[in-house]
């Protein structure tokens, strides 16, 4: 996976995240719709974190003179435990 394809994925996820946040406001009257939006929003946020992590790994490997294709997608549990 190239940096460009990862960046494209990030852009699509950010767009979806914005749409979900807007829809969340509109769905505030329906608890089922609101819960569905919240669940999807959480999944999108985790996927965004994983994509950013992969992109950072690739950049770090490239900066160290290593092959960026050696970067590995980390599982959600690992990425979500990072301190910010």
Gist of the model:
The protein has 84 residues and is mainly α. It has three helices and no strands. 11% of the residues are buried.
Explain what you see.
With 84 residues, the protein is mostly helical. 74% of the residues lie in helices and 0% in strands. The protein has 3 helices and no strands. It is elongated and about 55 Å long. The model has no long low-confidence stretch (mean pLDDT 91).
Uncertain residue segments? none
Helix content: over 70%
The percent range for strand residues is under 5%
Tally the helices: what do you get?
3
**Radius of gyration, taken over Cα atoms and rounded to an integer in Å:** 16 Å
The biggest sheet, with number of strands, parallel, antiparallel or mixed sense and barrel status, is:
none
**How many beta-strand segments?**
0
How would you sum up the global shape? elongated
From the N-terminal CA to the C-terminal CA, the straight-line distance is 25 Å
Order of helices and strands: HHH
Mean pLDDT: 91
- Strand-pairing-aware structural class: mainly alpha
Sum up the structure in keywords.
84 residues, mainly alpha, 3 helices, 74% helix
In terms of topology, how is this protein built?
Blueprint lengths: L2 H24 L4 H33 L12 H5 L4
